[in-house]
Amino acid sequence: MCGHFCIYAKLLSQPGLFSGESNVNFNRDLYNCTFPALIEDWRQTFHHGSQGQTERLFPFGFVQLSSVLAGAVSNDQLPQIRWHQTADFGYVPNLRMPNTFMAVAMDLGDRNSPFGSVHPRDKQTVAYRLHLGARAVAYGEKQLIFQGPLPEKIELLADKGLLNIRYSQQIQVQRQDDKIFEISCCDDHQCKWLPVPMNTFSTQSLALNISSCQGTLVAFRYAWTTWPCEYKQCPLYHPSSTLPAPPFTAFITNQMPGHHSKVAQ
């Protein structure tokens, strides 16, 4: 029932039903429109069907797609769907998806799940992350942390070969990873994604070593792969809530050394 809020779940007997992974090879580029439209349609249907007893914009929760073993899909397709699940913002709620909340599940990969690796058996962690979102969005607990760290500001220090990323909240670097961050490096009218190592970090920021890029750095991304990490072993989490930093991609809007830029959204 969706009287107070709705949590969007799929039927295990019908993997892929409205859940996203089926769109990897079917209208993938439209999912940033079709998924918000599905939420809007459900809200309108419940509101009219209950003769106005259900709020017109009732809170709506969903689970971002978990991990898929390599070879099932190309390495770029599933991350695109995860991104499109947020209407290309990287987080919810946002301007296109108001009053929504999301459980990140990319760190819950389950190689031996009888339902397939994208359907992890650890439903308790998924439920915990959803309930935090419900408390914050549906019940208005203002000081509650309900999502992992999100990039807030970028500082390009080209002369030092560094890209500093400041986060909106504290971060816990659980482990250093030389491949989970990537930069788009362009030279001679061609761009390619290069993995970059984490250099240094503090309580709310980290620096990436971008010296491998000999051209123009135009974008960066995090966890842009079908299987970003093993079970609860992604590099970045919020220190107290154990919530993982979600996958993210952003353009770097200015190439001047030392320029401070907000993340492109």
Could you write a compact summary of the structure shown?
The chain contains three helices and 14 strands. Strands 9-10-5-4-14 form a five-stranded antiparallel beta sheet, with no helix packed on it. Strands 8-7-11-13 form a four-stranded antiparallel beta sheet, with no helix packed on it.
- Give the tally of structural domains: 2
Spatial separation of the terminal alpha carbons: 33 Å
Which stretches are low in confidence, meaning pLDDT under 50 for 5 or more residues running?
9-18, 255-262
Strand order of the largest sheet: 9-10-5-4-14
Biggest β-sheet description: 5 strands, antiparallel
| Percent range for β-strand residues | 15-25%
Helix fraction, binned, reads 10-25%
Radius of gyration based on Cα positions: 19 Å
Q: What's the β-strand tally?
A: 14
Shape: globular
Number of DSSP helices?
Answer: 3
What is the mean predicted local confidence, pLDDT? 85
Structural class: alpha+beta
| SSE pattern, N- to C-terminal | EHEHEHEEEEEEEEEEE
Keywords:
single chain; 265 residues; alpha+beta; 2 domains; 5-stranded antiparallel beta sheet; 4-stranded antiparallel beta sheet; 16% helix; Sialic acid acetylesterase; SIAE; SGNH_hydro_sf; sialate O-acetylesterase activity
Question: Would you mind describing this structure in some detail?
Answer:
GO terms for molecular function: sialate O-acetylesterase activity. This is Sialic acid acetylesterase. By secondary structure, the protein is of the alpha+beta class. The chain has two domains: 21-139, no CATH class; 151-251. The protein contains three helices and 14 strands. The strands form four sheets. Strands 9-10-5-4-14 form a five-stranded antiparallel sheet, with no helix packed on it. The longest helix is centred in the N-terminal third of the chain and has 19 residues, at 31-49. The radius of gyration is 19 Å and the shape is globular.
